[in-house]
Amino acid sequence: MTPEMKDRAAALLDTYRQRGLKISTAESCTGGLVAALLTEIAGSSAVVERGFVTYSNEAKTELIGVPADLIAAHGAVSEPVARAMAEGALARSYADVAVGITGIAGPTGGTATKPVGLVHFGLARKGSATIHLERHYGELGRENVRRRAVEDALALLEQALG
Question: What is the pLDDT of residues 13-32, one digit of tens each?
């Protein structure tokens, strides 16, 4: 991750710490990169409650309670699943805010309706409606799609602060 992303993560953690809030992540296409970035910062244990890497559909169901029929109906890369991932991470942790990320980083796996670079995000916060964000990054290469997804996850976590 870039020095700018680390600085941004540190500022985010400082604000969460000051407000007494904790974060949980549920990551598929980013494979834990959001949690890794946040935990690179000293003192992050005061804010990062836990991270779930739910790469497979089974992991989404078993670890964070995404209904298998929801995945079957909409596909793992979809708005309903991203929302359910965030809500499941929130429900299965002691966090106040949770972000869920599911997408197609490429270079394979895309379809006409779900192309490479499509990423869905969910952001759940106790006492608030779950937010959804959809991004179409395009075929930027796997590393760049994942990096852009981490940046957007940080933006959602910042947005949750109001």
Answer: 999 999 999 999 999 999 99
Give me the CATH number covering residue 117.
3.90.950.20
Question: What is the model's pLDDT at position 100?
Answer: 98
DSSP string, 81-142: HHHHHHHHHHHTSS-SEEEEEEE--SSS---SSS-TTEEEEEEEETTSPPEEEEEE--SS-H
Burial class for 138, CB neighbours closer than 10 Å (0-12, 13-18, 19+): middle
Domain that holds residue 40: 3-159
pLDDT tens digits, 66-101 = 999 999 999 999 999 999 999 999 999 999 999 999
Q: Work out how many domains the chain is built from and give that number.
A: 1
Q: Is 56 helix (H, G, I), strand (E, B) or coil?
A: coil
Q: Rounded to 5, what percent of the chain is helix, strand, coil?
A: 45, 20, 35
